[in-house]
What we know:
heterodimer, A: seven-stranded mixed sheet, 1 helix, B: mainly beta, 0% helix
Amino acid sequence: DSGVTQTPKHLITATGQRVTxxxxxxxxxxxVYWYQQSLDQGLQFLIQYYNGExxxxxxxxxxxxxxxxxxxxxxLNLSSLELGDSALYFCASSAPIRTSGSxxxxxxxxxxxxxx
Amino acid sequence: QKEVEQDPGPLSVPEGxxxxxxxxxSNSAFQYFMWYRQYSRKGPxxxxxxxxxxxxxxxRFTAQVDKSSKYISLFIRDSQPSDSATYLxxxxxxxxxxxxxxxxxxxxxxx
Lengths: 116, 111
């Protein structure tokens, strides 16, 4: 158990809908990352938050947004869903390199999203 | 060309064999190197973490980084059927925390 929790485990929804994925980082970690894993693209970085602020962005679609709350949990919002958004979405947490000296990231169990 | 290249396998070996998994990369700014193990439909589990060049050993696992060749390796000694999983290499630069992943190598260890 990595200490990172994600809910829900599975999500089935229809095209055009909006969903919210939730992540709680390991105790003491200030950084939260979101990654998408699909069969054809592998694990792709989406976005990073550090202590409530956006730190880095990857190839995240404009239909997707995220935020990190004062209690450090994070939510990833996916809207106007398309069939191609079906994937595993992982959250990871870490202490930033500049404070911990390392970039070890610990992953949650993931949310499997199926868009029908 | 992808920043990180990894042979997808599958790699099939008998129990007890030494397994060698490799990744090559193109970005010379990568400083932090990691190996993750992922069982089917589960979250990636951090196995090994290495900063810059050199070797690191942890039990049956050894990670090597050769920055001059832009090549990293993970060796698994005395492989077990429970090692059957997909192994992902990942790396990042000093300036950013985001990880760039290889596509993963699927390993099968048969009894």
